[in-house]
Amino acid sequence: MTYAIIETGGKQLRVEPGRFYDIELLAVEAEEQITIDSVLLVNHDGDISVGQPLVEGATVEGTVMRHLRGRKVIVYKMQPKKKTRKKRGHRQEITRLMINSISLNGITLAVAEENTAPLAGESPSTDDTEAEAFLAAADAE
Question: What is the pTM of this model?
Answer without folding.
Answer: 0.72
